[in-house]
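Class, study these two lines:
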Amino acid sequence: MKPLAILLLGTAGAVAHPVSFEGAWQIMLGTSGDVQNFEAYHSYTSQAALGVHAMRFGDERDDDYYTGIQHNWLLKRWNMPEAQANIYLGLGAGAAKQDGDSWAPAGLGFFRADYETRRIYTAFETKLIGSEDVSRGVTSLSFGVAPYKAEFEHLNTWLILQLEHVSGMEDDLEIIPKVRFFKGPYFIELGCSLDGDPLVNFMMHF
């Protein structure tokens, strides 16, 4: 399993994968505009992970909140000599609310597909949250390039353009240039949308 783990962690996806190697813990914190996100998962096999997921959506009307338990599956992986592709699915159950309202049962659906080499990165991701009063979705498409090749234990740098749509928010589409750094188990992204909304993501696994 060690060579596979090194391959997974030496690409642009790095710890952004919703399922990591067997026995790994993964923590993700992020903010993009008016959306804040927290995720923590334990990959109890190399194809399945269980954890918690919380999100906040803020806008001029009401803030929406979601928190729940989530299970992620690696549905398919293609290992190629110089590339890798993955398909993931996640399902969550928890509660959601708007400001001033009570919590109500809610569900979450998650899908991700990516293709990566050591120089090129592409990913499509969508998550949908629904309850009696809250209906939100976040969908993104990302394209990245690495200006140089680096090993897992060295500093890796990626330049990524992300297109993101958040349903229920004021803007229809956000265009977010960002830079991604990771070294070993630590990962950080810094960026800013063309509308001036900052993006910060931090991830680690152990």
Remarks:
- The chain has one domain: 2-205.
